[in-house]
């Protein structure tokens, strides 16, 4: 199968696409794959290291721009569609998979113009603008959350789950022994979480020496947050800019403090890890809050809105959970019960069906 994967920008959009591509290569070694994204997105850094091919188009996001800003971007949008048409003409995919992010829009529109069937994978409980706009032309709309179905009215939605990076579906139960707190705010970090965690360290004094904290900050905050750990008497070497082996990090974790992106939720549920979720308040349509509620109302996570985030409240929540292993195990079990292993295979099955129909 010749598959083109369009989108990216953030890890939440990219990593499910990577999982899908790697699974296709595993079961169909003769398959051909191409990613299309932007030079500014995380795909430009991650895909070359993975040996996955990438073509880029010149496009920026529309979210947060006024009408004047959107109008000013019209020439760039037209240019990106022409760039996408050229890439499609050269690669000649049998199916295009849109994974969200602003790079997906021009590619899917170009696929529509050229008559190439495309599938949309919606990771979130509430879909983004690109997917809502282009869904009417999609051959299939694959959902990670059943809740997202209410945004689509075209009868082609299929609940597949969210493809996961290698190792996630093999995550062991919450370990015995020394406890580990895993903290991250997405692939580029989250300043609000970074600052709140450092400020919360005094509320975790009793765990000093017995609690390991693995904290992904992103590159911009790294040295400042390491200094905060150092001044509070905690090991600054546990603060890192990026965690390559996330499956290994989850395997060690007893509790997670994180944002509420769709990929994070899929990983938490696959790994069966309890979490304190702090949704990014500026996410389009506040979809991260919707995502977090999907876990919190089932008892698998705690929802802590960023506007209510204080050092004391975060510290107390972490403290209380670490003191209650039975609750951690219960939350972890509920999280795992919500996971949907095998999502990549289900999406690839739909891709094959689309190719067979065309």
Automatic annotation (TrEMBL):
Cellular compartments annotated: Cell membrane
Keywords: Cell cycle, Cell division, Cell membrane, Cell shape, Cell wall biogenesis/degradation, Glycosyltransferase, Membrane, Peptidoglycan synthesis, Transferase
Biological process (GO), any one: peptidoglycan biosynthetic process
GO molecular function, one term: undecaprenyldiphospho-muramoylpentapeptide beta-N-acetylglucosaminyltransferase activity
Pathway annotation from the record: Cell wall biogenesis; peptidoglycan biosynthesis
Signal sequence segment: none
Glycosyl transferase family 28 C-terminal domain ranges (all copies): 180-330
Protein family according to the UniProt entry: Belongs to the glycosyltransferase 28 family. MurG subfamily.
Stated name of the protein: UDP-N-acetylglucosamine--N-acetylmuramyl-(pentapeptide) pyrophosphoryl-undecaprenol N-acetylglucosamine transferase
Organism: Desulfuromonas soudanensis
Taxon lineage: Bacteria, Pseudomonadati, Thermodesulfobacteriota, Desulfuromonadia, Desulfuromonadales
């Amino acid at each position: 199968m010749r598959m083109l994967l369009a989108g990216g920008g953030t890890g939440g959009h990219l990593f499910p696409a990577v999982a899908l591509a790697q699974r296709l290569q595993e079961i169909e070694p003769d398959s051909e794959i191409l990613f299309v994204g932007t030079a500014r997105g995380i795909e430009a850094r991650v895909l070359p290291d993975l040996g996955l091919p990438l073509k880029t188009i010149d496009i920026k996001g529309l979210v947060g721009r006024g009408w004047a800003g959107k109008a000013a971007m019209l020439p760039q949008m037209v240019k990106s569609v022409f760039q996408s048409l050229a890439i499609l003409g050269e690669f000649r995919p049998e199916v295009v998979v849109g994974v969200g992010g602003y790079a997906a829009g021009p590619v899917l529109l170009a696929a529509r113009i050229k008559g190439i069937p495309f599938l949309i994978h919606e990771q979130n409980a509430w879909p983004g603008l690109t997917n809502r706009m282009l869904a009417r032309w999609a051959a299939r709309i694959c959902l990670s959350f059943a809740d997202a179905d209410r945004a689509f009215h075209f009868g082609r939605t299929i609940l597949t789950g969210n493809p996961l990076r290698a190792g996630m579906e093999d995550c062991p139960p919450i370990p015995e022994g020394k406890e580990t707190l895993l903290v991250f705010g997405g692939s580029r970090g989250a300043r609000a979480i970074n600052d709140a965690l450092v400020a919360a360290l005094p509320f975790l004094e009793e765990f000093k020496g017995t609690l390991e904290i693995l904290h992904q900050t992103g590159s911009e905050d790294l040295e400042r947050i390491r200094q905060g750990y150092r001044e509070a008497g905690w090991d600054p070497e546990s603060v890192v800019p990026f965690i390559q082996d996330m499956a290994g990090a989850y395997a060690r974790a007893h509790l997670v403090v994180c944002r509420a992106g769709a990929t994070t939720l899929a990983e938490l549920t696959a790994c069966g890890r309890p979490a304190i979720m702090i949704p990014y308040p500026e996410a389009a349509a506040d979809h991260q809050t919707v995502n977090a509620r999907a876990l919190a109302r089932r008892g698998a996570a705690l929802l802590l809105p960023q506007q209510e985030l204080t050092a004391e409240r975060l510290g107390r929540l972490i403290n209380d959970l670490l003191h209650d292993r039975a609750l951690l195990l219960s939350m972890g079990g509920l999280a795992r019960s919500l996971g949907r292993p095998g999502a990549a295979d289900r999406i690839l099955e739909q891709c094959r069906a689309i190719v067979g129909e065309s």
